[in-house]
Design goal:
The chain is of the alpha+beta class. It has three domains: 208 residues, no CATH class; 112 residues, no CATH class; 59 residues, Arc Repressor Mutant, subunit A. Helix content is 39%, strand content 20%. It is built from 15 helices and 14 strands. The strands form three sheets. A nine-stranded mixed beta sheet has the order 2-5-6-9-1-10-11-12-13. A three-stranded antiparallel beta sheet has the order 4-3-14, with no helix packed on it. β12 and β13 form a beta hairpin. α6 packs across α8 and α14 packs across α15. The chain is elongated, with a radius of gyration of 29 Å.
Length: 483
């Protein structure tokens, strides 16, 4: 049976956090009432003229520089013509054959292996409006009617197009996660995928292992989370593999991913570039950045996630996976640095952040910027463990409880009487009780079965509801057993 290799390229759309739209002065705030952030320019009314947003162009150039792209000396906007209800002008202003940022790359790491993914281009365009299909499923086929909100139409949108260098769903996830971290670090977008400010289209095909010609490409549109990207790719790879093994053809098309079923389905036949009848935008001048402008932006680049990750590994001895988590965004780095500033060791800070904090954030759907338990309060909990005031297992439960109820962990310990018991006399009394209740196990230990020691420790911890200090329990228990 023929073995197939997966070939994936990603097109990632990033809404920029500018105060105004790409070609007009309308505001860009998320969540405003429908159609309240529009004007004759972004609605494409006759006689209006667009004006390029300089801040948006600088944000695009910063993204390009962070991806090691070349900044083109001459870039031109084009009109991309198509007729969807969410595009009020019946064309989209975009950059086609002369984009501003070209030939970059992004290195991603999966399971200890580094892959360099080429960046074909990063170019500027304007976003479309948003269609709302009213019905049970929210899909157009089952809708009773549709509404259109043009607030989003005209918001600056950067499209980052990768080369087809990605070979698995895991690599695609790593690429999107790394790109998201870079853009967030640059401060040019909030990249909130749940709000649509970062969206991803995936192009996926299969080819026989060892060959170089590309297979038939399928595009999956508008994946709105990193997990959705992974699920959609896994399903599509399996679907195409099944077709090819059955001797059937893969059809070039655009497909939709259903979050509920985890499956992709046909959306429409795939358009080609000539379908859009591109031609230069006559109302906008070309963009020709000079060396001084580029150098100023390059000098303003912050420390990027890759450099931060490498620094944490070299300075603090963190494992790569932990370093990746704590350096994923400016907010996570700030949280980590605050823990260090409070006297927590780098390893303890990374373990708690990638463990209990990550679990709480995932359960509540929060980004680290929204963390309910601050770094200062987590530091207090970690220090309580180190001081023997509470056991590690109890502290983990306390943290999740404190996060759930928006309380300080130390207050939860006090309220519920969860402080660790470390008094020798109190623990010795419980040890004596456990030994009296388990005479057979005591005899087995004294005749050489040392593994019984762990069982007896467990009985003491159970009797104290996990609040006894483990070192004290071990010492007192050994003293009693060897007396």
């Amino acid at each position: 049976m023929t073995e197939y290799e997966t070939v994936i390229g990603l097109e990632v759309h990033v809404e920029l956090s500018t105060a105004s739209k790409m070609f007009c002065a309308c505001p860009t705030a998320f969540g405003a009432p429908p159609n309240t952030q529009t004007c004759p320019v972004c609605l494409g009314q006759p006689g209006t003229l667009p004006v390029t947003n300089r801040r948006a162009i600088e944000s695009l150039m910063m993204i390009g520089l962070a991806l090691d792209c070349e900044i083109a000396p001459h870039s031109v906007f084009h009109r991309k013509n198509y007729f969807y209800p969410d595009m009020p002008k019946n064309y989209q202003i975009s950059q086609y054959d002369l984009p501003l940022c070209v030939q970059g790359h992004l290195d991603v790491q999966v399971n200890g292996s580094m892959t360099r993914v080429g960046i074909t281009r990063a170019h500027m365009e304007e976003d479309t409006g948003k269609s709302l299909h009213v019905g049970v499923t929210g899909r157009i086929a089952q809708a009773t009617h549709s509404l259109v909100d043009y607030n989003r139409a005209g918001i600056p949108l950067v499209e980052v197009v990768s080369e087809p260098d990605i070979r698995s769903a895991e690599e695609a996830q790593a690429y999107l996660r790394e790109l998201r971290g870079i853009v967030k670090t640059l401060g040019v977008s909030d990249v909130r995928m749940e709000e649509g400010s970062m969206r991803c289209d995936a192009n996926v095909s299969l080819r026989p292992v060892g060959t170089h010609d590309f297979g038939v490409k399928v595009e999956i549109k508008n994946l709105n989370s990193i997990r959705s990207l992974e699920r959609a790719l896994r399903f599509e790879i399996e679907r195409q593999t099944t077709l090819l093994h059955a001797g059937e053809a893969v059809v070039q098309e655009t497909r939709h991913f259903d979050e509920g079923t985890g499956k992709t389905s046909t959306l429409r036949s795939k358009e080609e570039a000539f379908d859009y009848r591109y031609f230069p935008e006559p109302d906008l001048v070309p963009i020709e950045p000079d060396a001084a402008w580029i150098d100023r932006l390059r000098g303003a680049l912050p420390e990027l996630p890759r450099a931060r990750r490498d620094r944490y590994i070299s300075e603090h001895g963190l494992e790569p996976a932990m370093a990746a988590f704590v350096s994923a965004s400016p907010a996570s780095s700030a949280y980590f640095e605050d823990l260090l500033g409070a006297g927590v060791s780098a390893r303890d800070a990374a373990v708690w952040m990638s463990g209990e904090l990550a679990r709480a954030l995932n359960e509540h759907g929060h980004d680290i910027e929204d963390a309910v338990v601050s770094a200062a309060h987590l530091a207090g909990l970690i220090q309580a463990v180190q001081a023997g005031k509470v056991t590690l297992n109890t502290a983990k439960k306390v943290f999740l409880d404190a996060y759930e109820h928006a309380k300080e962990p130390i207050d939860v310990i006090a309220e519920r009487g969860l402080g660790q018991v470390s008094d020798d006399a109190a623990i010795a009394a419980i040890v004596d009780q456990v030994l009296a209740e388990n005479p057979k196990e005591v005899e087995r230990y004294r005749t050489g079965e040392e593994k019984v020691f762990g069982f007896l420790i467990g009985q003491v911890m159970r009797a104290t509801k996990g609040q006894a200090a483990p070192p004290v329990v071990q010492r007192v228990l050994k003293e009693r057993l060897t007396a």
